[in-house]
Amino acid sequence: ESHERVVVFRSATVKESVCPTYDLAVIELNALRSSSECNLVITVFKLKRRKCKAIGSFEASVETLISACRTNAKVSGFEGCEDAEVSSPGLQLRRGGGESAGKIVVLEASIEHPSDTRESQFLSGADNDGGAPGELALSDDSLCPPVMPGTFIRRPAFRDYTELNIDLCVAIDFTSSNGDPRLPGSLHYSRDGMLNDYEESILAIGSVIEKYSQTKMFPCWGFGAKFNGVVRHIFQCGPDANSIGTDGILNSYRSVFETDLIMSGPTELQSVIKAAAARAKRSHGSASQNYSVLLCLTDGIVDDLEAIQRLVRSYQKLQLPLSLVVVGIGRADFSAFHAWSDSPAQS
Fold first, then answer.
1. Cα separation of 88 and 309, whole Å?
2. What does the alpha-carbon distance between residue 335 and residue 130 come to, in Å, rounded to a whole number?
3. Helix (H, G, I), strand (E, B) or coil at 60
4. Cα–Cα distance between 126 and 223 in angstroms, integer?
5. Is 57 helix (H, G, I), strand (E, B) or coil?
6. How large is the average pLDDT for residues 65-73?
7. What end-to-end distance do the CA atoms of the chain give, in Å?
8. Backbone angles phi, psi at 258, to 5 degrees
9. Could you write out the DSSP letters of every residue in 288-300?
10. pLDDT at 132
């Protein structure tokens, strides 16, 4: 008999804590390729810098998990883990060398018939045909639920409770202080599939905001570059006025380097802020709830900071649904922005 292990389920990542709680997983019993008495290997990993490191693992059968669930049903204090105790030695999490790495508490475990309701998943005290109260006839093959392996019941996310539509505008610094984009070490330099800091910032922020956008149609602007001998404080990146999603923004940004731009200066943000404000004002009167975010990516000191502050205060008085997010790229001095963001709003 082969002892090769097959991955049947991977959970979603949960926030690190001393007592993490994982979402309920629904796994087809047939996916285990054996009976409910076969041992499962359950491993807990820690995700750090996009790499998984095993904390510990244990082996347990489905029957053991159900039994542990009944035992733990009487244990209090799960939220703080102060009183939680696990009597089954099979649920002791252990590292590769055999030393203890903690314990796993089973909050819910069952085998269900397809017609069973959601309320019957917690089996302590449940009545089942062919057995005593609280016992399950595991030999009945009809108890295998017809679900795909690895599915799980998702907890509601924030976006499930809101009809808010967030519009994202991205403005990117193409001034000469970024350095020659063809040379390694410059801020716009990228090759071999590796992302530069501008691309990483777009991906990190854009991938979050696009989840709350109904259209995912985002303008991508540049500023500080010279075209035909004229410095442009705002210009369209890419062939279209709007980019589709975060990937579209990245493609529009990269397409700029295929043009005849000359990186220039100075660094001024007034034009991109005014364009984002006009876009926010147009959507402000619509029936749906719209909010705009202007993401400015810049490499250093902004030449028109005082004018920007006055402009933003004027928009605050108009109560425009617009937020300005400035991300500093590189190692320049951004203390002026920190001082501005830490100061109270002025009327």
1. 62
2. 73
3. strand
4. 66
5. strand
6. 70
7. 76
8. -95, 0
9. S-EEEEEEEEESS
10. 39
**Token reading at 130:** 């062919």
Q: Indicate if the alpha-carbon torsion angle 45, 48, 49, 54 is positive or negative.
A: negative
Say how far apart CA 230 and CA 283 lie, in whole Å. Answer: 32
Q: φ and ψ at 31, to 5 degrees?
A: -70, -20
Question: Minimum mean pLDDT among 84-88, 167-171, 296-300: which range?
Answer: 84-88
For 3-27, write each residue's pLDDT tens digit: 556 676 777 777 777 778 887 777 7
DSSP code per residue over 111-177 = ---TT--GGGGS-TT---TTS-TT---TT-GGGS----TTEE-PPPPGGGG---EEEEEEEEE-BGG
Backbone angles phi, psi at 331, to 5 degrees: -115, 25
CA torsion through residues 134, 135, 136, 137, sign: negative
Collect all residues with Cβ–Cβ distance below 8 Å to 95 and sequence separation of at least 6: 54, 55, 56, 101
Query: What is the Rg, in whole angstroms, of the alpha carbon atoms belonging to the chain?
Result: 28
pLDDT tens digits, 225-268:
998 889 999 999 999 999 999 999 999 999 999 998 899 888 89
pTM above 0.90, yes or no: no
Taking residues 306-334, report their average pLDDT. Answer: 88
Tokens standing for 217? 């149609």
249: exposed, middle or buried (Cβ count in 10 Å: 0-12, 13-18, 19+): buried
Residue with tokens 């252990």: 94
Torsion of Cα atoms, 221 then 223 then 225 then 226, to 10°: 90
DSSP assignment letter at 286: S
Smallest CA-to-CA distance from 235 within 210, 268, 195 is with 268
Specify which of 52-61, 143-152, 196-205, 327-336 reaches the highest per-range mean pLDDT: 196-205
Pairing of strands 220-223, 165-173: parallel
Rounded Cα gap, residues 96 and 56, in angstroms:
7
For residue 17, the Cα-to-chain-centroid distance in whole angstroms is 18
